[in-house]
Amino acid sequence: MPYPLIDREHLSNLRLVHAFYNTGVLSLFFYQGWLGFSIRRARNAGKPPPFPMIKRHRKMGPVGVVLAVLGFFLGLTLVLLDTGRILKYPAHLFTGFILIALITAAYAVSRRILGPDSPFRTPHSALGVAILLLYLIEAFLGLGVLF
């Protein structure tokens, strides 16, 4: 099978779409992290719960999970269309895979948070910080793939 499966111009445009899409998802996760940090800070200070923030954080979490997984598979599809080799960019691939695993774990842990004194709040927070740090690394590696 001759690669790339689509012409280079379309592939180049699709790479940019992938980059902009995932930059949007990255921004969503940083906003989500800011919401979570604000909620946690209020809770630890003994202030009343910021219900609008809590509602937004809970509503946007599952959306972020779906968007991140979709971005991962879109990137995977682009590499397969371009080269047919899934391991063309191994660092970006494995970082993305770990990122998706952490996002899924954070979502799973969040489903177990019940009540204000839940022991799952701290692991959820730690996973969130790890996701944000890894997302920055993933974006840096993605720039290397793009250029």
Q: In total, how many domains does the architecture comprise?
A: 1
Averaged pLDDT = 95
End-to-end Cα distance, whole Å, is 26 Å
Binned, the helix content reads over 70%
Major beta sheet summary: none
Q: What string gives the helices and strands in order?
A: HHHH
Q: Uncertain segments of ≥5 residues (pLDDT<50)?
A: none
Total helical segments: 4
The outline comes out as: elongated
Q: In angstroms, what is the radius of gyration? A: 18 Å
Structural class: mainly alpha
Please indicate the percent range of residues in DSSP E strands (runs of 2 or more).
Answer: under 5%
Question: Tally of extended strands?
Answer: 0
Spell out the blueprint of helices and strands.
Layout: H1 8-44, H2 51-82, H3 90-110, H4 121-146
Helix pairs in contact: 1-2, 1-4, 2-3, 3-4
Protein described:
The protein is built from four helices and no strands. The two termini are 26 Å apart. Helix 1 packs antiparallel against helix 4 (121-146) and helix 3 packs antiparallel against helix 4. The radius of gyration is 18 Å and the shape is elongated. It has helices at residues 8-44, 51-82, 90-110, 121-146. With 147 residues, it is an all-alpha fold. The protein has one domain.
How is this structure best summarized?
By secondary structure, this protein is mainly α. It has four helices and no strands.
